[in-house]
Amino acid sequence: MKKMMWWFTKKHADYLVLNRDEQLLLMEEIRKAHLEWSTALSMFDNVVDPDEIDHIIFLINAAEKRYMTLYKRAKLLHKEAHEVRGSDVS
């Protein structure tokens, strides 16, 4: 979780594109998506029926895609915040 906290520390609060509530909402969505992905991965270890295996693989792929999409969004917002901060310094 610490790796995801870098983009909304107080140090960069004035430069963020999202307001504080939106940041917290995005952070919570990332946490939930990671939990869903981890849960799907752990479910895979407990299935034996081939139909269930296919279903779990689908869940794993969907959860991973959701997590990565949200994570990339947070990363992009962090990059934009640094670009804004860099242009303010000049």
From TrEMBL:
The name this protein goes by in its record: DUF2508 family protein
